[in-house]
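We now fix the convention by which a protein and its fold are recorded. These numbers are not coordinates but entries in a learned vocabulary of local backbone shapes. A record is reproduced here so that you can trace the correspondence yourselves:
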Amino acid sequence: MPRAPQTLDAETVRSWCAGALAALGRERAEIDAINVYPVADGDTGTNLYLTVESAARAVDAADAAADVAEIIRIMAHGALLGARGNSGTILSQLLRGMAVVLAEGADGDHLARALANAAGQARQAVAHPVEGTLLTVADAAAGACAAGGDLVTVAERAYEGARAALDATPGQLDALRRAGVVDAGGAGLVAVLGALLETLTGEAADRPAEPAWHHHPTLAVDCAAGTGPAYEVIYLLEAGDEAVDRLRGRLDALGESLVVVGGDGLWNVHVHVDDAGAAVEAGVEAGRPYRIRVTHFESRPEPAERAVVAVLPGEGLAGLCTEAGATTLVARPGETPTAAELTEAIRRAHAREIVLLPNDTELREIAAEAAEHARREGIRVALIPTRAAVQGIAALAVHEPERRFDEDVVAMTAAAGATRYAELGVAARQSFTSAGVCQAGDVLGLIEGDVAVIGRDLTATAVTVLDRMLSAGGELVTVVVAADTPDDLADTLERHVRTTYLAVDTTVYHAGEGAPPLLIGVE
């Protein structure tokens, strides 16, 4: 048996992070099933998994030469950026509290102090702490190893203390007692501490043959549904300490389950409210909120048989595709969606079969990674390599969920492949292109990804691009205009098609903010 380490090192922390992610992956569905507090929305396991997944991505991207203090700081920061839900937000603060102490030393005594600091910091982050929750389990873990000792002894005592506290949570919280389950967030923390012990010893942590959370997995969703505020609001916030103190007071008056974690100018804000807009406005007054997520609480339905997930440029276009039945992810300028965000969109679609439309050549590999991740979770995913939003629109137009999956995918692929696409943009600087040299401010007309036309006027360039595309034939023109284009652009193009190409129909969509000035599709 290998000798147990006496201090944590960077590689051990990396292994712990990977092990925690794997443990939460194994237990995610079971933890989701027992989620009754503070809201029975069946996603605590998933939220904890996504939080640690964000931490793991940050750790994987860290410099190989980073020391243990830097790696644990990166792990905590990654969790803060990707924290999901009430429990995920608290877990990120626990990791942050540990990082502060472990930066000073990484032996058993420091680990014990780190767990105590983590539990204290997490409790302070929650506006109204409740016993029988993740906070109680964290306190018990810290208390069980308070005497210190060697690294493995501290980790073992923390794990056993957390497990015992978890088993006792139904006696502390009526919602858990009525459902016959333990606290879901606490169960996740036990999994994370178990992963730490396994990393240090090389042996699987001792777990009961029949965990407490297996008792009544179906009762959890029913016992508290329909109570409490209607929305969960989460966002990252850049703000100073004084502004955040005022924000806490305002959000506490608006709702409940308030958790604000972070520091040094960056915070993760979580609250349950009936007025989601007011919660976001409070963040705007405090500083700069971003990555805003608003979730409506409702009982989790059975998975749909099939769904379409599409990446779209601009809120308006995403809204149109949402109305058509797709689950959408908005790609904002300069912010390419990550594989994790695309995987989350697939999960959000909540279907057994998924047709994935990336609608961008740069997203092909990212979409493939997300599809493979979803397949490992038991979801059947077909990736149609759409290269532009107009191809995605064409595919969505022929989507028929009643068809066999393979037949539907073939029809959608054929519709996307039959759609030639163009995009108009404005040159940011002088550059050499396939159509010649462009200057900053020139209008660029790209056909199938290559610059084909350089002009000075958006409308005139659009007409030229449209003529070139229709010279090869076509029956339907799709025009997608952004919010900041000339008011008469769409009308001008539609009129031009109607008078010049008598047998060609035109459909116009408005993409809203954040989209390229003009997208054109020809079928």
Observations:
- The radius of gyration is 26 Å.
